[in-house]
């Protein structure tokens, strides 16, 4: 499997489980379409932040999935979870991946379109 530093386990040997991000508030109320545009822009530019494209693709799929599927995606991609809400992760080579909360959940002040 590799050395202990490359596993997803915590010191007690348990795998760090993904959880939903804590509720958060955008600086000003935004619509669902504005949120989707922000997400699209992030994912379009994410590979330019460094790291491997296949890890960014896995994180994108995990961000859009339910918690059980997201866990399976990051486990199979070898993603090391620093923060259980996926805001900070690493790949097996040590590259850091930071995800803003707006790609992981909706703000508390979201305005529904229409």
UniProtKB/TrEMBL annotation:
Region (Disordered): 1-31
Transmembrane segments: none
Domain DC-UbP/UBTD2 N-terminal: 16-113
Residue ranges, compositional bias (Polar residues): 1-11
Bias-annotated ranges (Basic residues): 16-25
Listed PANTHER family: UBIQUITIN DOMAIN CONTAINING 1 PROTEIN-RELATED
UniProt name for this protein: DC-UbP/UBTD2 N-terminal domain-containing protein
């Amino acid at each position: 499997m590799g050395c202990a530093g490359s596993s997803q386990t915590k010191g007690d040997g348990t795998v760090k489980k993904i959880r939903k991000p804590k509720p958060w508030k955008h600086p000003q109320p935004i619509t669902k379409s504005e949120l989707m545009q922000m997400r699209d822009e992030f994912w379009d530019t994410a590979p330019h932040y460094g790291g491997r494209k296949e890890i960014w693709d896995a994180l994108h799929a995990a961000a859009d999935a339910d918690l059980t599927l997201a866990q399976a995606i990051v486990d199979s991609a070898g993603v090391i979870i620093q923060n259980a809400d996926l805001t900070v992760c690493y790949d097996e080579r040590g590259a850091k991946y930071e995800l803003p909360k707006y790609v992981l959940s909706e703000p508390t002040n979201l305005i529904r379109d229409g």
